[in-house]
Design a protein that fits this description.
The protein is an alpha+beta fold. It is built from nine helices and eight strands.
Amino acid sequence: MDSLTQIVLGAAVGEAVLGKKVGNKAMLYGAIAGTIPDLDTFASYFTDTVSALEIHRGFTHSILFSLLFAPLFGKLVSLYEKSASFKQWTILFFFGFVTHPLLDAHTTWGTQLFWPLDLRLAYKSIFVIDPLYTLPFLIFLILAMRKKRTSAKRRKLNNLGLLISSTYLILTLVLKGIAFFQFKNALENQHISYTEIETKPTPFNTILWTANVDTKNAYLISHYSFFDSQPIKFKSYPKNHEKLGRSKNSEKIQDLIKICNGWYTISEKDGELYFNDLRFGLMSLSGETENFVFSFKIETSPEGITITEVEKNPQDGKKLLKELSTRIFGN
C-alpha cells in the first residue's frame, strides 16, 4: 500500500499496543515501524531494474524480518524512551513491522511474507491507494490522538478505526469473488476457451474490476463494474513470446517472467522489443493502446541483455483517471 496508509496502520497498531502507557509516542513509533519495511525501495539506486524488482517486498516484508529486527529497534528506543520496557517496545515494533506486509499481501504486487521461501502472497483485492480504506482509518486515528492517553474513548476510537479498515479488507475479498464469477460467466456465455483467469481492482476503488484471461496464443483483458448493464467484452493482446528468441533463456528475462508470474506480452516498436507486465494492466480503459503500466525495454549487446523500465507519461495518467471517473459508473 502507499506510504500514508502504512503510516496510519502503523500508528494505529502502535496505539493499540502502547498508547495507554506512552500516549502519542506509541503512534509515532508505530508510524516509523510501519514505514521501515518499504525502505527496500532504495535498492533501485544501487542495483539494476530487475534485481530491484526482486528485492522489493522481499526480506523486509517477511515474518523473519519482523522477528529479527523488532528486538533491535526495541532495544534502541528503550535506551532513551524509559516510559516503556525493552519488551514492550519490541512488541510494538514487531506488530508495526508484520502488519505492513499483511496489508500489502492484499495488493496486486503481493509480498514475500514467508521469505526465504519462494512464495509471494497476492490476494489482489485492493489497489495500492484506496481512499475508502485510508481516509476513515485516518479520521479515527486523528480523533483518538486528541484524547488523553488514559481515556477509554481514545482506545475505542482507535479500535474502531482498526475494525472498520479490517472489515473493508474482508469486503474487498467478497467483491473480488463476485467480480470473478461475472467474468467467468461471461467467458462461458461467449464460449471462450481459457486456461486461467485473474482479477484485480482498478485504481482507487473496488467497484470497477479488471480481468486478465490466459488463452492459447493471447491474453484477454476486460473490465466489469457493479453498475454495468451491458455484457462484458474482452479485448485480445497477442502473447508474442516467440519474439524473445534465444534471449528468453537469459537470467534477466527468466527473472522478469518469474516476477510477473508468467503474465506478460512482448511487443515491438521501431525494431526494439518491450516486455509488458500484464498484472497492472494498461494506461487506458478503452483498450485502444498497448501502453502498459509496467513495460520494460529489452536491449541486447555483446555484453549481455539490459532491461530498462519505460518511463510513464503523466498525461497518460490523467487520461486514465478521466476514463475511470466515467467507466466506474457502468458501461
